[in-house]
Amino acid sequence: MERKIEKTYFALLFDLLQLGGRVAEQAWQLLSRLPTNADLLQAVYELGAGEASADWSLLDAAAAPRLLYTLQLVDFYSDTVGYVGVRATGNVAGDYLLAGPGWKGAVPKGNPGSWATTNDYPSRALREEREGTSGFRVTVGPDGRVTDCQITSSSGHADLDAATCDNVRRRARFNPAMDGDGNPTTGSYSNRVRWVIPKD
After folding, report:
1. Which H or E run contains 165?
2. Where are the domains of the chain?
3. Which stretches does DSSP call E strand in 111-200?
4. SS3 call for 187
5. Tens digits of per-residue pLDDT, 45-60?
6. For residues 100-118, b (16+ Cβ closer than 10 Å) or e, as one string?
7. Is it the case that residue 178 has pLDDT exceeding 50?
8. How far is the CA of 45 from the CAs of 1, 31, 128, in angstroms?
9. CATH 3.40.50.1580 applies to domain 107-195
10. Is it the case that residue 169 has pLDDT exceeding 80?
């Protein structure tokens, strides 16, 4: 017999968050793994009853195009300046840049996370299990290529810092900055690379 649903799926999850401990942790896992199907709704009921062995792998990937979501962008005065979401930007992956009015700086092409990956880990640092975060700033030429890279905050390991700039110089590409007349010009860009040893 089908259980009568008296609360919405989200209301149930937010009620479970109030319980704390393992139940709240698993409720957060459910919230972070949308979209869901009817099987996960049943799992929420079971979780509320104290059964922590629910199967969290039952996801309805086919529901992703139908999932309605939105990210509202607001300014300092709480005025809405834009939306990212199904109705505003569609339901495919995308890259979004938040910038002030008249901003004409260099914009990365593609995902900066692919410039330095775990495959680029310096072998000695990997053997010695060294990790760290390297902050960097690059100068971007009018052609969108990196002309210089400087470490702005060290990981504490010279080889990780060197690998950061080596890989960013080699892989990073940009839409160049624009001058007041709309012509490509030299610009800069800053970011960080987290060097974390991959888990087996």
Report:
1. helix 158-171
2. 9-59, 67-94, 107-195
3. 132-140, 146-153, 174-175, 177-178, 184-185, 187-195
4. strand
5. 555 444 443 333 333 3
6. eeeeeebbbeeebeebbee
7. yes
8. 15, 14, 47
9. no
10. yes
